[in-house]
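Final report, Chapter 2: Outcomes

The project's central promise was a pipeline that accepts a single protein chain and returns its three-dimensional structure in a standardized token representation, suitable for archiving and comparison. That pipeline is now operational. To close this chapter, we reproduce one record exactly as it appears in the project archive, with the input sequence first and the structure output second.
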Amino acid sequence: MAEAFRGEFYQKVDAKARVSIPAAFRAILNADDPQKGEKGGARLYLVYGGKARTFVECYSKRGADRLAEDIEAMEMGSPERTRAERDLISRSVMVEIDADGRIVLPPRVREKMGFAGDLPPDAEAAFAGFTNRFRLYRREVYDAELAEDDEDDDIDPLTLVGRHKRTG
């Protein structure tokens, strides 16, 4: 992947559960899906599995294919592979970005994000970049997790990166 998903973006979610994908993220999704979907838009893979997760993990076409390859490399029949297949493959959905740069959040994705029933008029989603993927949260959940992380975070993140620096 030439580009990485970077940054935080907040987008309104309308009453029909439509949300605009940030332009920077759309550019990567388009580049990672040269064949596009049935309607000509880039495909986005939304992973809503994982019981403890408070977010939806989002992958480009290329990213989703790489994730599937990593899972296929796991030992067939192992509990780890079965769990990964169930939570990352079975509990996912592909959506296509429309001509206006939006997607409709499917019911299972809305449920995972905590948007049950009718969407409130002030509903917002938070998009958070994680290099090869991004996460989609309900804004209040994302803000609360950030506040919690900031309260007890005495570690300089650059020291963490230094511990895992590539050699060669």
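Archive annotation: DSSP finds six helices and eight strands in the chain.
This record, like all others produced under the grant, will remain available to the consortium after the project formally closes.
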